Amino acid sequence: xxxxxxxxxxxxxxxxxxxxxxxxxxxxxxxxxxxxxxxxxxxxxxxxxxxxxxxxxxxxxxxxxxxxxxxxxxxxxxxxxxxxxxxxxxxxxxxxxxxxxxxxxxxxxxxxxxxxxxxxxxxxxxxxxxxxxxxxxxxxxxxxxxxxxxxxxxxxxxxxxxxxxxxxxxxxxxxxxxxxxxxxxxxxxxxxxxxxxxxxxxxxxxxxxxxxxxxxxxxxxxxxxxxxxxxxxxxxxxxxxxxxxxxxxxxxxxxxxxxxxxxxxxxxxxxxxxxxxxxxxxxxxxxxxxxxxxxxxxxxxx
Length: 302
Description:
Blueprint: E1 2-6, H1 14-19, H2 26-34, E2 38-40, E3 43-44, E4 56-60, E5 77-80, E6 84-89, H3 106-113, E7 136-142, H4 145-157, E8 161-169, E9 176-179, E10 182-184, E11 192-194, E12 203-212, E13 215-222, H5 229-236, E14 260-268, E15 275-279, H6 284-298
Parallel strand pairs: 7-14
Antiparallel strand pairs: 1-4, 2-3, 2-4, 5-6, 6-7, 8-13, 8-14, 9-12, 10-11, 12-13, 14-15
């Protein structure tokens, strides 16, 4: 891929400048610069180079292709027909590989169980949306090109209803609609943040289900699908997801990954045209935590 930029302000390091204009971390950009894929005014430069007004920056980089490897994996299938399937993704499972050495993902298990998926996208075959590594729950997969195209279209138009269960710090007792733009964190490009200046509109509907101790169980319905939307939005209103150490805070229970579960999907079947509703159970890791907190409350001295 080739990108060209005309610099409008002097003084910034080239690696920082590019990290603000491209969807790559600063460390990755530094490696790409070292490989000679970034030219300024036709000359290769170092990461420490500071840009000047009217510099012409050319970023020319082709990501290394890799072949997906099949891997036998236990897949919890909650719905399947000839065109689609829905998997209840386990926590701590990456959906698709990010580089050629990462071959322990859900996609590797999918192509083992469904070899024809290899005819679709070479890196994300059948994947029409994604869940974070530590987010469990319903994940929709297309089994052929027509289904894939139509489902991607539904997600892009926002017509798929997606609801999540989130365990959060704090007691929330009323429904809240969060309408805040989300974009790259300007101080840390690896993270997302509420960014009203440069972000994209993001809407989450938050509904309380139950409160216990200093925590609440919420239902969060996504009206848009920005990266880390639920985690960023909930943290922005003071109710960070339990275990989210990126956007939230430490907890005294040793929880090291976010308690977030995709429990409901509603969409139009891409081929048959009927309405499909999928619901998954609350995962055991959430149930166990809630039970633990409730027991602490019951035995707390009065």
